Fold this sequence. Notes:
Blueprint: E1 28-29, E2 37-44, E3 58-66, E4 72-76, H1 89-101, H2 105-110, E5 116-128, E6 138-143, H3 145-155, E7 158-159, E8 166-167, H4 181-184, E9 192-201, E10 204-206, E11 211-215, E12 219-221, E13 227-229, H5 232-239, H6 258-269, H7 282-290, H8 303-307, H9 349-358
Parallel strand pairs: 1-6
Antiparallel strand pairs: 2-5, 2-9, 3-4, 3-5, 5-6, 7-8, 9-10, 9-11, 12-13
This protein binds zinc ion.
Amino acid sequence: xxxxxxxxxxxxxxxxxxxxxxxxxxxxxxxxxxxxxxxxxxxxxxxxxxxxxxxxxxxxxxxxxxxxxxxxxxxxxxxxxxxxxxxxxxxxxxxxxxxxxxxxxxxxxxxxxxxxxxxxxxxxxxxxxxxxxxxxxxxxxxxxxxxxxxxxxxxxxxxxxxxxxxxxxxxxxxxxxxxxxxxxxxxxxxxxxxxxxxxxxxxxxxxxxxxxxxxxxxxxxxxxxxxxxxxxxxxxxxxxxxxxxxxxxxxxxxxxxxxxxxxxxxxxxxxxxxxxxxxxxxxxxxxxxxxxxxxxxxxxxxxxxxxxxxxxxxxxxxxxxxxxxxxxxxxxxxxxxxxxxxxxxxxxxxxxxxxxxxx
Length: 359
Ligand SMILES: [Zn+2]
């Protein structure tokens, strides 16, 4: 089973002989910085049909932060399911801190690393000067909240302030352009190429200048350096190469239990996570109880194994999960956990479809 945190582990820690190391995602695309930058024109692709994938991306959430004693603690976060019977103790602890101290420095000093999403989609690489051998191929892309922000923004309709006219949003995962029948008939929204630009900044790569180009049919980069719309047959050939995303998404039953995470935290930090709130905390008692059925021995993250290695990230800011696996960090971290709700996230598939439908 894939866990985002597994990427941090060193290959030597894996003892499986027959299985591939679980942190290796087949067909994963990673951009390559050259002279401090990269520019990749890519197309997000729809979900693989008939595979049970309903939406064109999957999300895992993870916590990773440094303890006072300098060790790193990480766990997958079950919060995305919005299931009242599944609680993430780290999120629960943080919300207790915010409730008790408000938005104060005291609270900011006490909260633990907020969860971060990792999204995965199929993409077609149209043009990539730094790695021309990736052009014309389908990959799976891991991306952060910042890139998802571009997607959700592109989906939304916008209003022209001068004319009052609506500038329709796009479906970033569509093969088709404004002149295709399915778009003209209103059955589908047009897609567009995404220009993913990364510039090396002091805090990691910045993607600020990335953007969607004008809507058009999926296209390919030809030898004459021009982009040509694909034929229906070429689209079919791309469609046939789509990866499933299901094997990346961590299913509910594979998460470490609430109790196991608390115990691991306590052991590693040398203190009781809920000590401050333990007196008469009904929430804690209740969640501990309700989390019991999840107490399955299917640990996806053994942080003792993963974080106890010399390969742990050294910088103080929250590190990206790909950092030790490659030299290409993907996350432009939030600077701290100081704000809880200021960042755009897509909470679930319903939100995604609602945004597409209503826009
Ligand atoms: Zn959490």
